[in-house]
Design a protein that fits this description.
Blueprint lengths: L2 E8 L1 H5 L3 H11 L2 E8 L3 H7 L9 H8 L4 E9 L1 H9 L12 H5 L8 E3 L3 H11 L13 H4 L3
Antiparallel strand pairs: 1-3, 1-4, 2-3
The chain binds 2'-deoxyadenosine-5'-diphosphate and magnesium ion.
The site of 2'-deoxyadenosine-5'-diphosphate (DAT) has 9 residues, from loops.
Length: 152
């Protein structure tokens, strides 16, 4: 597996419900490296670009209303295979179909309130990281336990 970067965001429902620590903890405990983190309320322009692939879907306006309704915690995580692994940690889009043990499977019920976003492929990860973060906001750092995290 190659070292990758992915964009993850705790949506307004996750922030309002006090789930930031719980969700950050799952990525930290897995062993991925946090390289960018900020809280912001996205404006409609950012939200519409972020969800641009869904612009023709009937739920698009509701989705943009929701994601712009309050603070979001935006992050970049780095690690071996982090893009697909994050999607596994997050679980299926419909929380009632998400496996127990996943973030959505454990913490959510409704598709419109599924607490977290994660990039679904290398191209979307690159697009979303560039959309939400300036290069100067991304921290390239080496954890002191780095040798314990990588394939030997
Ligand atoms: P994911 O967030 O798992 O990548 P997606 O990209 O298909 O899922 O959709 C983006 C978000 O849009 C999703 O997290 C919740 C919302 N959404 C998707 N399908 C929906 C639907 N049928 N009704 C309402 N909201 C929906
Ligand atoms: Mg998606």
């Amino acid at each position: 597996m190659a070292i990758e970067r992915t964009f993850v965001a705790i949506k307004p429902d996750g922030v309002q419900r006090g789930l930031i620590g719980e969700i950050l903890g799952r990525f930290e405990q897995k062993g991925f490296k946090l390289i960018a983190l900020k809280q912001l309320t996205p404006d409609r322009e950012l939200a519409e670009k972020h969800y641009g692939v869904h612009s023709e879907r009937p739920f698009f306006a509701t989705l943009v209303d929701f994601i712009t309704s309050g603070p979001v915690v935006a992050m970049v995580w780095e690690g071996d295979g982090v893009i697909s692994s994050s999607r596994k940690l997050i679980g299926a889009t419909k929380p009632l179909e998400a496996d127990p043990g996943t973030i959505r499977g454990d913490l959510a019920i409704n598709i419109g309130r599924n607490v977290i976003h994660g990039s679904d492929a290398p191209e979307t990860a690159q697009f979303e990281i560039g959309l939400w973060f300036q290069p100067s906001e991304i921290n390239d750092w080496t954890p002191s336990d780095q040798l314990w995290r990588v394939e030997q």
